[in-house]
Write a structure and sequence with these properties.
Layout (H helix, E strand, L loop, with lengths): L4 H12 L18 H15 L2 E5 L5 E5 L10 E6 L14 E3 L7 E4 L4 E3 L15 E3 L8 H19 L8 E6 L13 H4 L3 E7 L4 E6 L1 E10 L15 H11 L15 E9 L3 E10 L2 H22 L4 E9 L3 H4 L4 H12 L5 E5 L4 H7 L6 E3 L11 E3 H21 L2
Parallel strand pairs: 3-8, 3-9, 9-16, 10-15
Antiparallel strand pairs: 1-2, 2-8, 4-7, 5-6, 7-17, 10-16, 11-13, 11-14, 12-13
């Protein structure tokens, strides 16, 4: 394939400079009005490129079609990416930096603030020597998660329309809001989408192909205390923050994100707010194996109960809510959809990295809604923070994978 690197790079930059940060505390859908800004840009672009059935619904889901150019029927394949960026780190005023012919050394993101992207710490950088790297300026995230995926899908559809000699069936695409706050698939209309299966373009490094993910739950722990004047506190004050530290210590210290890998689950404390009178702790609970996941939730509740028993009163309460489940259960019966993606990567010289996601995507929820949906690399690294980067060559390769999948489906189901 002869993709126009500069054209696709400019497309990516135009997307990441639109602020689409989502908001976990807003129940509205989408959770931020600014996501509509990119959605409307995409609708206009898809129409200009020549896609059919371009729609933007009341919930900010964009869908469109590249019609089949075959004389026979094959399954309809979909590709999905999300337009929002993570609220973990600001996505406003993104100022992308393009580094041509990366030399394998430190990349200075921000000289004034001494922010450096170094291969000494982020050694994945070294596999991209000689390539074009897009980074932040160190003050925001980049938004390659998942605007790289959006770029790849749009670019692949554009290429297919411009090259009708490449035979393919109907292809459906969708761009979703609010994936980063766990709602991206909640209002996704699988029947309207009309695909037999789909792929999310939402993975990380080149070659990733994933059809397993964590089972996930969120837990909110509330600890009640009692405030009195510290000079008269003996036997009366109950400091909820001190109880919180004891609760944190009661969970296994070797079962956190920073101490686990692969299929190992964890408890992750990601937010805490406290005063003497009240402290809240917010955790995410993750495990790939359903039995271990259920045990992990039970162990969490047991920790609350045992501490209340020790305190002699119910000062600690917890609410645990399931978030999503391991898509493996839904994908395994149709493993040919993973095989097709694996073959497509190999055909264009990519070594597939088939592994489990230590997280989740829209695809995990979509799979349980009846749309089996493995995950393919989008190319970025260090998501949700100032050190995020993406090699342009990985965006180009992901674009090629999409085209190749469409082509292979037409051949395999002839």
């Amino acid at each position: 394939m002869n993709l126009n690197k500069e054209h696709i790079l400019n497309r990516f930059i135009s997307y990441v400079t639109v602020d689409t940060e989502s908001d976990p505390n807003n129940p509205a859908f989408p959770s931020t009005e600014k996501q509509w800004n990119l959605a409307r840009i995409l609708v206009k672009e898809l129409n200009t490129i020549g896609l059919s059935d371009v729609t933007l619904d009341d919930n900010c889901y964009i869908m469109a079609t590249v019609p089949s150019n075959l004389e026979y029927d094959v399954p309809t394949v979909g590709f999905v990416a999300h337009i929002d960026t993570s609220p973990d780190f600001t996505g406003a005023n993104v100022n992308p930096q393009v580094h041509e012919n990366y030399d394998g050394k430190d990349i200075i993101l921000n000289k004034e603030e001494n922010i450096i992207l170094s291969p000494d710490y982020f050694d994945d950088l070294l596999q991209y020597k000689g390539q074009t790297i897009v980074t932040t300026d160190g003050t925001t995230l980049l938004g390659a998660d998942d605007k790289a995926g959006v770029t790849e899908i749009v670019s692949a559809m554009e290429y297919l329309i411009q090259h009708p000699e490449i035979k393919h069936g109907d292809i459906r695409i969708c761009f979703t809001p609010d994936e980063e706050v766990g709602k991206g698939a909640h209002l996704f209309d699988v029947d309207t989408f009309g695909a037999d299966w789909a792929y999310t373009m939402d993975g990380s490094q080149i070659g990733e192909l994933e059809y397993e993910n964590f089972n996930a739950a969120g837990a909110k722990v509330t600890i009640d205390g009692k405030i009195v004047h510290p000079g008269y506190a003996k036997g009366k004050m109950i400091n909820s923050m001190l109880i919180a530290t004891e609760f944190i210590s009661a969970l296994p210290s070797n079962e956190t994100p920073e101490t686990t890998t692969g299929y190992e689950g964890f408890f992750h404390l990601h937010d805490m707010h406290g005063t003497v009178e009240k402290t809240t702790l917010e955790y995410i609970i993750r495990d790939h194996d359903m039995t271990l996941f259920l045990k992990r939730k039970s162990d969490f509740e047991n920790t609350v109960n045992s501490m209340n028993k020790k305190l002699g009163k119910d000062l600690i309460s917890v609410v645990i809510k399931d978030q999503y489940f391991n898509m493996k259960e839904m994908v395994t019966p149709v493993m040919h959809i993973v095989d097709i993606a694996e073959e497509a990567m190999k055909d264009i010289g990519i070594t597939p990295l088939i592994k489990a996601i230590r997280g989740g995507t829209d695809g995990s929820q979509l799979s349980f809604k009846g749309l089996p949906c493995p995950n393919i690399f989008a190319g970025g690294h260090n998501f949700h923070g100032r050190y995020e980067y993406v090699p342009v060559e990985s965006i180009l390769k992901a674009t090629e994978v999409i085209v190749k999948i469409a082509e292979k489906v037409a051949i395999k189901f002839k």
